[in-house]
Every structure is written in C-alpha cells, then in structure tokens.
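Please go through the sequence line and token line underneath and see whether the fold suits the sequence. See right below:
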Amino acid sequence: MAAARQVLCLWALLGVPRVRCEPIRYSVAEEGESGSVVADVAEDAGLAPAQLSARRARIASPAGRQHFRLERGSGRLVVAERLDREEMCGRSRTCTLAFELLLADPLQFFPIEVSVEDINDHSPVFPDERVTFKIPETSDPGSRFPVGAAQDLDIGSNDIQAYSIIPENEYFTVFIQSENEKFIELVLEKPLDREEQPEMDFTLVATDGGSPPRTGSTQIHIVVLDINDNAPIFTQKLYIGHVLENAPEGSVVLRVVANDADEGFNGDISYQFSQSVGHRHSLFTINSKTGEIGIAKPLDFETEKKHKLTVQAVDGGGLSSMCNVIVEVLDVNDNAPEIVVSSFNSPLPENVEPGTVIALFAVRDQDSGVNGEITCALEEQLSFSLRPAFKNYYELVTVSTLDREERAQHMVVVTAADAGSPPLTSTHTFSVDISDVNDNAPAFNQTSYTMYVHENNAPALLVGAVKATDADAGPNAKVSYSVVPARGPEEEPCSCVSVNSESGGVFVLRPLDYEQLRQLEVVVSAADAGSPPLSSSVSVRLLVVDENDNAPLVLHPSAQDSSPPSSELVPAGAEAGDLVSKVVAVDADSGQNSWLSYQLLRATEPGLFAVGAQSGEVRLRRPPTERDAAKQKLVVLVRDNGRPPLSATAALSVLLVPGSWDAQLPQQSPAAGEDDGSLTTSLIIALVFVSLLFLLSAAAFVACKVCKRKELSSGPVLYGASSVQSYVADGAAAGTLPHAYCYEVSLTTGSGNSEFKFLKPVLPSLPAQHCSTGVGGAHAEEFPPVPVTMGDADFESPGMQSVAQLNGF
C-alpha cells in the first residue's frame, strides 16, 4: 500500500511546530487481523525509528477510539483491532479514519488518513424469508408484482448485481427497476389458471458481484385467486418528509395514500413497511389504516441525516403496490462543541520563552452548517493565547514570561462556542503548574545586623541570629549560612565567630576581652541549594560590652618596684588648701567602669589632709603645727564605678619641713642670711634627689611592663593583661591620665616670710592613640587625644618646667 507523501507548509517552517498541511494517506482492507501492517509511517514522515521512541511518538484520534497503533521500534503502523467497514461507516461510499501522529520535544504532529476498503463479507438478505402473492387468475400477462429488494451491506461491486428464479418456470420472470432505489418485480409471462394450478412455489435468488459471489434468497408462494383485477395505486411514487431531529416520539412525519378501484373487500387497503433490513424501520411506525408515518424513537441528525423507507399497500384481494419514502432529518443545535486534548505539557518551567506550545487540542461539533461553526477563546488570560494550527486544531502558547513566585499555577479555561441560536458552549480547564527555577537569591530581613556580647563570655555563646528567605521553592529555597571573608577569598574568615548553617545562629567561639577587642565585623553569606546556587551576604557587627574586670592601676605614687616611696615636702608656712601631691591612677575598663573616685583611707594625722574625690589631689586641710609629726604617712583608696566596684591603694609619705610656724619670719642679721642660703641649698639638693628618684622609679616601672608584654605576646593568647600604653590610653579617655609636674621651691629674703609654691602641672599634648582589633577583619578605631583636668586647683608660676614626664602616655 502506497502513501501519498506531502510537503510541509511554509508557515510551519517559520517558528510554528512542524505540521503537515496535507495528511498522509493509506488504505487497508476491512476485517484485517489485529497486528496487520498498514505502512511504514516513520519512513513516510521522514523520521528515523529511533526518533519515535526518543520523542515519545503516539497515535491520537479525535474520536477517542484507537483503531491503529504505532510500533516505535520499527516505525510501522499496524491494525489495533478488527475493522468492520459496515459498522464504522455503514453504506457510505467512502470510509476514512483520521488521526494524528504526535511527537514531543519539540511538539510536532502529522495528520494521517486511512481508507478502509470494502471486502465481500456480507451476503444479500431479503426482507422476508417467504413472500406470498395472491394473484387473480384473470391477471394479464405483463402484470407486475413488487417484491422487497434484497439488501447487501457491502458496496460497489460487492453489492447485489443480479436476481434469478430457481427453478425457472414459464409463468414468471424478474424485472429490476433502478429509479432512485432498486425495485424488484415479478412479471407474469403467461396467464394463470386456478383450476389447473391453484398454487405454485419457487425461489428468488439475489447474487452480489464479489469474488467469490455471495447469494441470498426468499421463497415465493403464489396463490391463484378469483377476480380482483385492480391493484392499489399510490398517489406518488416518492414521498419526501422533513422532521427536526429533536421532534418528540409519536410525531407524524408524513402520510402516504394509495387508491384501489375495486370495491368492497378487494378495495380495502392496508399499509406496511416492506423493507426491514437494518434499523430504519424501528425508528418509524406506520398506521396500517391511514398510512401515517410517525416517529417511534428519537432521531439524531449526526447519526443519520436521511432515512429511506419502502411502503407497501395491499388490498383485500392480495394485490399490492409500493412506493419510496425519504425522511430527511433537519439539524438543530443540540450538540455542544467538544474539546479533544491531544497533548498537554505540565508542569512548565518558569523560564520558558514566550511562544512555547504547552497544549494541542482539537474542537469539533457534530452539528452541521452554522450550528457546527466553532470559535475558541480564553477567559481572561494575559500569559497565554490560542493559535490556530491545522484545520480544527489549536495550540495553547505562552505570550509572556512566567514567574512562579508571583503565581505558581494558572487555571487556563478554553471556551468553545458554536454559532447556533442559541449558541452552545463547552469549556476545558488546563491546570498549568509552573515549576520552579532558581532565579531568586536569598534575601536577608535586615540590611545589616548589630549584636552585643559581654567580654569574658563563655565559649560558643549564641549572641543572635541572621535570617534570610528565598522566594523560590523546594531545594532552590533551602538556605544555608556561612561566614565568608570580608575582603575577598584570599583572606581567611574570622575564627572568633561562626554561624549555624541551618538556623543562622551567630556564635562567639572564644572569650573576648574588651580591652583587646572592642568590636569586629564579619560577613555572613546565605546561599540556596539551586544549581547553580545563588547567594547574598550581609554585614554583622559584633560589639563587645565592657565588664568591670580591671582594678584601678596607680601610676603615681608608683608601687611597682621595690624602691622606697618618695616623700612629699610641706614647708612650715603652707596654708590650708595647698597642694601636697596628686594620686594618679588609670582603669583599663571603659565607661562608668573606668570612672575613678579617691578617698583618704588612713593617715597619721587624718585631720591634716584631704583628698579630692574626683581629682585625687592631696591638699592640706589646715596649716601644719609644731604638734604634728614631721613624717606623715597617708593611704589613699582608689575605687572605680563598676558593679561590683574594684579598688586599689596608694601610699604617700609627707615630710613636714621644720622651721618657724609663725605667720612671718623674724628679722635676720647678715649672719642669719648666710644660714638661710645654706638651708636653701640643702632644700634644692633634696628636691633634685627626690625628682631623680621618681624618674628612676617610673623608668623601672615602664621596663617591667614592656617585659611582661613581650612574654604575653610570645604565646597564642587572644586576650590578657593590658599593656601600659593601653592603660594610659584608657586613662586619657577617662580623664585620669597624669601629667608632668614641676616643683619649685624658693626662699625669699627680705620679706621675713618663707614661701613654698606648688605649681600648675605642665599639660603636654598627648599623641593620638590608635587601637585596632586585629581580629577577624575588624576595623581599627582611632581615639583622639583627650584633655586632662587636674581638679579645681589652678596655681600660677612663671618659669614652669617639666621635671618628669612619663613617656608613651
């Protein structure tokens, strides 16, 4: 069997899925066994057999019933079930089965038509197995007696070709009339004689044109009657009636009328259907008396548009005649359009290009004419549209980009409506699920995070959490967290902080020391599990909260070395409120933890001295007297403002210079002036000695601290004792940093009084202190120089010099 190869349409090559404009046609004989090969459809479609399996080729029939199947391995089209042409198409001259060969990836289909050829598988069948004719003996030669024609369900050459009488007799011959519908008549060739032969029997045989031919027969019984010389005559040879297909049962379609010239019993006419082959007569009834033809069962225009009936009129004498009746069924719009889906792809990735075909379907309406004209439309869909494909096929295509995060499912409703009055509609809903594509990076709920941790924290302490969400779904929305280098992959990430990969909890892994590390900043990345993964990052700033873990450190007077403390000199003429000394202390903590207060803890003469609570200045509460001990020992308590407070003590030694405790010195002779000069020299020597001793003590203190710091820095310790410079830097910030003092003792002559002046401290500019965390990529902080106040005392003296200044403070 040969297939008519067709060419592809030009428009099918310009972006539309490949569709053949003309179908591939085959022919196959009916009654073929299941599995019979029809043709090699893969070769005729220009496809390799391997493509059929790879592209999931299948057969799709609009009628729903699959008469054929496709062998993907060989590409052959075979019969799926026994084909009965008469069952599928009746006596139609052509019997064509239409279906499509569908392929996916990409979507492509080929229309196929298979013509089912008739074979001679049916024998002729007469309406009745036995027919009786009552013929008057006076009938003239040439009289005709109609016989119901045999019916053969086959067509063409396999239909009935000839009639014959067996055994042949001299009285009757067969005449075939072919006007509109075949009529078979027995023609009387010789007059009958009832007295000679009252009855006779013979067989009427119908033979078709098949090879070999098939036959059918009916028995003819002739009864010779006395005189009834007029047969009924119909008013029309052909009656045509019209009826709507939705006419109710019992409705009268038309009425046939026959007249008989005889009178009495011979003129009584009864009507009946002559031809009963098939189911036509079961749809209609005929009133034997009136000849009215009515509807016995519902009619269907889509099943059969025209019904051909044969009515026989028989009079009381046995004479009869026939007429043809054609009942034409008129179509009404009683069938809604049908939507037959051939292919549907769901779910659909959200990144598909506009114009992608997601469904292929056909529409059909069993009504005819205007009632069968169909239009298709979508109900309020902006993302999809319909595109005609081939004949009554439509494609459902995308017209815009899809976003699963905006809408995960589209309910696309296709409405098919006919043009009847009123129009009938049907709908089909395509549930288009949108599958996720990893097109959204995780997003944090904050642009940055600030977290706090108290110093000296426990290891692996949870200090907070970051949170990121991903608008995607499934693995594409699973977020994992990690700490990444702040300045690029070449930098190691901070080892002090980690983040839980699932919950986003931020943990501080080791104890922190505020005095070493005040803040650090890390970058946390959130990545999804897509392929490839998408990520985003956020800055997490970790602020270390100071704890009161450092006691005040007394810088002056120094008690860090073994040298004896220096003594402060108080001249005999000192007055109440004069500055004796100043206790200088610093606290490595910050804020209120570094606010220092001073108080006199013990003293040889408690009522002689007073200590400034904020400044640490030791002043005379009253002028010294002769009753006061020459050497006074003081213990000053230095306490911070922490909770609980920490404290330290400073020991002072004050030497009261002996002399006249009067308000004024007496007048001196020249000899006494020499004694005064000697005393002045002694005091200057003593003051120089005390100053040198203080410088040596300060130098020893600094050297000791430097050595300890080197020992600490040699080991892997993140935190520890603060260096002297750090203490002094914090002391500067707290306002307790010591300044250099210049002590000047002068004795004047001629005034009769001795004077001991305590001068204002020299205020050198402190260099800016730079503090850098040095851990985890944290930023360095610069602390500007802080001016230091020395309390309320403000002593003026010309020629002020710096006798001692601590370096590095």
Notes: The longest strand covers residues 215-225. Residues 1-17, 660-673, 713-809 have pLDDT under 50 and may be disordered. Helices lie at 41-44, 49-54, 85-89, 280-283, 670-713, 724-734.
